């Protein structure tokens, strides 16, 4: 299997038009996405920034096949209209092509770091020997070689987030969705995490879509999109800083 999408660099990986999402609260509906257009390219870190409640997580969920929008269309890789696919095909799309990194790590308490990574490979029908090798390599690539047999309770927040990144990267996804990946971390751990995401885009050609309200992460982005109250305010292409300053508080 190809572990590299870098030949696709600069090409569109994901696009969406006219996304609308409403939630029912009591007797009224609130509109959380108000007609959002979006696109992201291979090799880019696309940063979506906005205050709490602006619709960032809802947007990521709609783009990644987790939450069906009420209106609009998502085109992702070869899926011309993601939300027109059956639930099973959408699940398959996520398993095959998407890596997820969340603020809360989402690790299984009972599994070791290596087992967390092997579990996702199993769903891709990777045999146990190969899964073990790839899990080990993924954990080593995030600097957790000596920690592969630890469980989440024995790892720091930064280490847990690195396990989540190893788990996301082990299947070499085209699309990486990171929702507030650094907000539970200290500055040093946050810096390690955003640098790993930057490297996934630069070295593997993944399209990294990173949602955050932390302005310090902008330094790592190829593109910064601001969202407020369910609308895109601006969308600026930039060159990532060569030597970003420390992420300390
Ligand atoms: N399942 C839901 N039911 C009702 N309201 C929701 C639901 N999910 C999110 N919301 C509301 O939608 C708005 C945007 O939420 P969210 O996308 O999580 O924002 P962000 O990630 O930018 O903080 C918030 O006002 C939130 O309370
Ligand atoms: Mg959120």
From TrEMBL:
Keyword Zinc: no
Name used for this protein in its record: ABC transporter ATP-binding protein
Protein origin, superkingdom: Bacteria
InterPro entries in the record: AAA+_ATPase, ABC_transporter-like_ATP-bd, ABC_transporter-like_CS, ABC_transpr_LolD-like, MacB-like_ATP-bd, P-loop_NTPase
Keyword Nucleotide-binding: yes
An example Gene Ontology molecular-function term: transmembrane transporter activity
Residue stretches making up the ABC transporter domain: 14-249
One GO cellular component term noted in the UniProt record for this chain: plasma membrane
Source organism per UniProt: Caulobacter henricii
Alphabetically ordered keywords of this record: ATP-binding, Nucleotide-binding, Transport
């Amino acid at each position: 299997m190809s572990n590299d999408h870098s030949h696709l660099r600069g090409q569109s990986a994901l696009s969406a038009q006219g996304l609308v999402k409403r939630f029912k609260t009591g007797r009224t509906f609130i509109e959380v996405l108000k007609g959002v257009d979006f696109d992201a390219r291979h090799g880019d870190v696309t940063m979506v920034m906005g205050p709490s409640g602006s619709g960032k997580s809802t947007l990521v969920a709609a783009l990644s096949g987790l939450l069906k929008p009420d209106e609009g269309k998502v085109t992702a890789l070869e899926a011309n209209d993601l939300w027109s696919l059956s639930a099973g095909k959408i699940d398959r799309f996520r398993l095959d092509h998407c890596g997820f990194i969340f603020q809360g790590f989402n690790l299984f308490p009972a599994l070791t770091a290596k087992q967390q990574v092997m579990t996702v490979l199993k769903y891709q029908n990777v045999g146990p020997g190969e899964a073990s090798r790839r899990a080990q390599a993924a954990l080593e690539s995030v600097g957790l070689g000596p920690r592969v047999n630890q469980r989440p309770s024995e790892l720091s927040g930064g280490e847990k987030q690195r396990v989540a990144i190893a788990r996301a990267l082990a299947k070499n996804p085209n699309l990486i969705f990171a929702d507030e990946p650094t907000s539970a971390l200290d500055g040093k751990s946050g810096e390690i995490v955003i640098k790993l995401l930057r490297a996934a885009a630069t070295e593997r050609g993944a399209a990294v879509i990173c949602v955050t309200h932390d302005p310090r992460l902008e330094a790592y982005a190829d593109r910064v999109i601001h969202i407020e109250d369910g609308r895109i305010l601006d969308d600026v292409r930039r060159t990532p800083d060569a030597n970003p300053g420390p992420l300390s508080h």
